[in-house]
Design goal:
Blueprint (H helix, E strand, L loop, with lengths): L10 E12 L2 E9 L8 E2 L2 E3 L6 H13 L7 E6 L10 E9 L12 E8 L10 H15 L1
Parallel strand pairs: 1-6
Antiparallel strand pairs: 1-2, 1-4, 2-3, 2-7, 5-6
């Protein structure tokens, strides 16, 4: 199916906040970006929605490509649509939460040069608006606990 419109459309992405509890510490899985924008900065795993997939398929694919993890149960958290959140173009992101089990060992792939667990109190500087995304997610996680 192909459409042509006389005005621009935003890009749609899906990002994942994957968390685990390690010795009573909450940790979040981040990737180090291999390409611009924000090359070498840390970010939530995720990426652009393909035309022939759902958001749920997109986030599962992106997480598997960037971290090697599969079989996670994703729950939609919220859409983020602030202006200028991506320097390339207008981007709307739907963020998903997933709790990691202890079985999978993340391995960087695709657009990620590294993947690492970070304690919530010791996060590195983050790309895009991911700091505010994580803050909002942690607030909601506290409500869900």
């Amino acid at each position: 199916m192909s459409y042509t419109y006389p005005y621009p459309r935003p890009a749609v992405t899906a990002d994942a906040l994957i968390y685990r509890k390690d010795h009573d510490k909450l940790e979040i899985l981040l990737i180090q970006r291999a390409f611009p924008p924000f090359k070498d900065c840390w970010a939530l795993p995720g990426g652009f929605l393909d035309m022939e997939e759902t958001l749920e398929e997109c986030i599962a694919r992106e997480v598997q490509e960037e971290t090697g993890l599969s079989g996670l149960e994703f729950v939609q958290l919220e859409a983020f649509s602030a202006l200028n959140r991506d320097p390339r173009h207008r981007t709307i992101t739907v963020v998903f939460l997933a709790q990691a089990n202890c079985d999978g060992i993340p391995q960087a792939g695709s657009d990620a040069s590294h993947v690492q667990w970070f304690a919530v109190g010791n996060l590195p500087a983050l790309a895009f608006d991911h700091e505010s995304v994580i803050e909002k997610a942690l607030t909601k996680l506290a409500l869900l606990s």
